[in-house]
Amino acid sequence: MTSPKVLVASDLDRTLIYSAAALALPLPDERAPRLLCVEVYESKPLSYMTETAAALLTELGELGDEALFVPTTTRTRQQYRRIRLPGPAPKFAICANGGHLLVDGASDPEWHTQVTERLAGECAPLAEVRDHMTATADPAWVRKHRVAEDLFAYVVVERELLPEDWVKELAVWAENRGWTVSLQGRKIYAVPKPLTKSAAMHEIARRTGADLTLAAGDSLLDADLLLAADRGWRPGHGELADVGWTAPGVTSLPERGVAAGERILREFLREVREAR
């Protein structure tokens, strides 16, 4: 295929798209930006971006051979397919934190096989981690236990009831078994360390011949993606912002909520134009 000059790999939730609770609209209601719903779940609107952000993403997607936009998410394939992003349908997408590389909407079987073989050889099995989370989590504050794509586990919790030490203790336990723990909103993820968005991004860059990589993300699970890209951005909210995480080549933005999504897309477009 024709090689894009710039590969743009961006996290979605709380980076480009936002739930109603995560919008962070500090303006008076009459001055709030117009919103576009980009996800419906169980017949109800779930995720949004501003109309301005939608126009910027459309512009990015229409740059053709100059840039390749790659949605990059911890969501499962089924969860990702609920999202209707504006602009052309992406050629590639990264789902399940790098466990699935979608090409024209279909998972690449060779990539998935490589990932599962690496996980089997480098970290504790999923069943052990899932069983530990189930045994130590209190039903008083856990609402759901989930396994995603037979690759990682997460629980949905009531944040106001969640004991602060539980996440820390789980992180220490998981670290010794080759897993990472991430708290994102009401979800606590346990993900194998070799399961990374950055590995999938590098694979797409190899296939397409991209010579510049850009990335954005807000959570601990996005840190490897930001470090692997030539240039990265993180919003003023989220797990990384909460701990003051910084790195060379990564810009910490002041914007929070849906305004950060607009700023990130402006930064992507600026970099693509400069790469011309």
From TrEMBL:
Signal peptide: none annotated. GO terms for molecular function: hydrolase activity. The keyword Repeat does not apply. Keywords: Hydrolase. The keyword Hydrolase applies. This is HAD family hydrolase. It comes from Streptomyces xiangluensis.
